[in-house]
Write a structure and sequence with these properties.
By secondary structure, this protein is mainly beta. The chain has a domain of about 130 residues: Jelly Rolls (Sandwich). It is about 10% helix and about 30% strand. It has two helices and ten strands, in the order H-H-E-E-E-E-E-E-E-E-E-E. Strands 1, 2, 3, 4, 5, 6, 7, 8, 9 and 10 form a ten-stranded antiparallel β-sheet that branches. The longest helix is centred in the first third of the chain and has 20 residues. The protein is rod-shaped, with a radius of gyration of 69 Å. About 5% of the residues have low confidence. InterPro entries: C1q_dom, Collagen, Collagen/C1q_domain, Tumour_necrosis_fac-like_dom. This is Adiponectin. It is found in: Secreted. It comes from Dryobates pubescens (Downy woodpecker).
């Protein structure tokens, strides 16, 4: 390689060797060799793939208690729950104080119970029961044999008569009118009974009595020291008005 070509080649090798040795430590961009070797800036590369999430760190220390916030508005009332089981029965309490005495109400009373003392009363007139068992209000008149109503209301009357020596026909009268009738046929050598009862509504002044009706053959009502013939009556309830 002699001539111009050889000279040119030797020059290139020298320049290349000089630039390589100079670039070993760190190229200097200000040198003519660096300007000669540098190329145009490349385009930015694409973003890399995101890395994996790191491990969770340790919990930090508990912070201080914060200030109490303002009370919120009252919530809506909830639904009524199911009633609970009945609890055990408690012990009796102490007796209370005695109350004041109330006003007494007026009680209507009217009653009598009488018996016969004479044998064979006369027919067609009130039988006079003169043996008094009870007549506290004196509403029965022993002198006439009649009960006289003083308290209007409903009354109960009953009689139980001993029958001896003759048949008995009796009736209970109210205001001169027979209300009920009782008949008993006498059996010889025997003592029998005749009875009756009735509920009546009476007005003030009404009279009630027992009476033998018919002729004298039917007045076998009897009484002695061991056999009674009785007549009774009492007020069940008075009229409210």
């Amino acid at each position: 390689m002699k001539g111009p070509a050889g000279f040119f080649l030797c020059s290139l090798l020298l320049v290349s060797t000089h630039c390589t040795e100079a670039a070993d430590p760190e190229p200097d961009p200000k040198t003519p060799c660096a300007n000669w070797m540098g190329g145009a800036p490349g385009y930015p590369g694409h973003n890399g793939v995101p890395g994996r999430d790191g491990k969770d760190g340790r919990d930090g220390l508990k912070g201080e208690k914060g200030e109490e916030g303002m009370q919120g508005p009252k919530g809506d009332q909830g639904e009524i729950g199911i009633p609970g089981r009945e609890g055990p029965r408690g012990f009796p309490g102490q007796p209370g104080q005695k109350g004041e005495k109330g006003e007494g109400s007026f009680v209507h009373r009217s009653a009598f119970s009488v018996g016969l003392t004479e044998r064979a009363p006369h027919p067609n007139v009130p039988i006079r029961f003169s043996k008094i068992f009870y007549n506290e209000q004196n509403h029965y008149d022993a002198s006439t044999g009649k009960f006289v109503c003083s308290i209007p209301g409903t009354y109960y009357f009953a009689y139980h008569l001993t029958v001896y020596l003759s048949d008995v026909k009796v009736s209970l009268y109210r205001k001169d009118k027979a209300v009920i009738f009782t008949y008993d046929q006498f059996q010889k050598n025997n003592v029998d009974q005749a009875s009756g009862s009735v509920l009546l509504h009476l007005n003030s002044g009404d009279e009630v009595w027992l009476q033998v009706y018919g002729d004298g053959d039917n007045n076998g009502v009897y009484a002695d020291n061991i056999n009674d013939s009785t007549f009774m009556g009492f007020l069940l309830y008075p009229d409210l008005d």
